[in-house]
Automatic annotation (TrEMBL):
This is Cysteine hydrolase family protein. Gene3D superfamilies: Isochorismatase-like. PANTHER family: ISOCHORISMATASE-LIKE DOMAIN-CONTAINING PROTEIN (PTHR43540:SF6), PEROXYUREIDOACRYLATE/UREIDOACRYLATE AMIDOHYDROLASE-RELATED (PTHR43540). The keyword Hydrolase applies. GO terms for molecular function: hydrolase activity. Keywords: Hydrolase. It holds the Pfam family Isochorismatase. Its EC number is 3.-.-.-. The keyword Hydrolase applies. Coiled coil: none annotated.
């Protein structure tokens, strides 16, 4: 962790799509296991509330005929651990980024938020889309890697396990788009005022080259 900066971040915790379909439903999270990651999402929400960090809950919406997140279905509803906790703002979306077609940016600007802490699902889809979108709009981003998760994919481009997808995306995010850290580390940052470590594309690449040459 870096030393405390002169300016304290004005954070909002962005809780992305923590819905029942991810909890053993039609799109069950495999890595990290949902049962573990949802505990960390809840922990982050509790820590945010205790530290007066605003909490925004995002929900993915899909037509009633959809196989996942169908309107009116159990799978499409917020997970009970998230639904029962307080929030400062609620956003429904239909595309991966929480910013597209929603009032999220306007709400963040109105509340003078400059730093987003992203948790929820999935690492490689809605989290990734939201984080990149946020960076392009000038927000600083933090990503809690144990409060999220991935599923495996197989298609015409090949196969990737949930663990591979999650690991690679977090490495990519840390290289440029977000400060990647564990929930416990983030909670400590809230207590101490320390800022999480950020990295660069160049430095990340140079370390990889040195590692490969060793």
């Amino acid at each position: 962790m870096s030393d405390k900066a002169n300016t304290t971040p004005r954070r909002a915790l962005i809780v992305v799509d923590v819905q029942n379909d991810y909890d053993g439903g039609n799109l069950a999270i495999q890595h990290p296991p949902f049962r573990d990651s949802v505990v960390n999402v809840a922990r982050a929400m509790d820590a945010a509330a205790a530290a007066a960090v605003k909490v925004v809950v995002i929900k993915q919406m899909a037509p009633e005929t959809s196989l996942i997140f169908a309107k009116g279905s159990h799978g499409g509803e917020l997970h009970p651990e998230i639904a029962r906790r307080s929030r400062d703002h609620y956003v429904e979306k239909t595309l991966p980024s929480a910013f597209t077609g929603t009032d999220l940016e306007a709400w963040l600007r109105a509340n003078a938020i400059d730093t987003l802490t992203v948790v929820g699902y999935m690492t490689h889809n809605c989290d990734l889309s939201t984080i990149i979108h946020a960076v392009h709009m000038g927000f600083a981003v933090e990503f809690l890697s144990d409060a999220t998760g991935s599923v495996p994919y197989a298609n015409s481009a090949g196969y990737a396990s949930a663990e591979d997808i999650h690991r690679v995306v977090t490495v990519i995010l840390q290289s440029r788009f977000a400060a990647v850290l564990k929930t416990a580390e983030w909670v400590e940052c809230l207590k101490t005022g320390a800022l999480p470590e950020r990295d660069t594309i160049y430095a990340s690449n140079q370390r990889a080259l040195a590692r490969n040459a060793a």
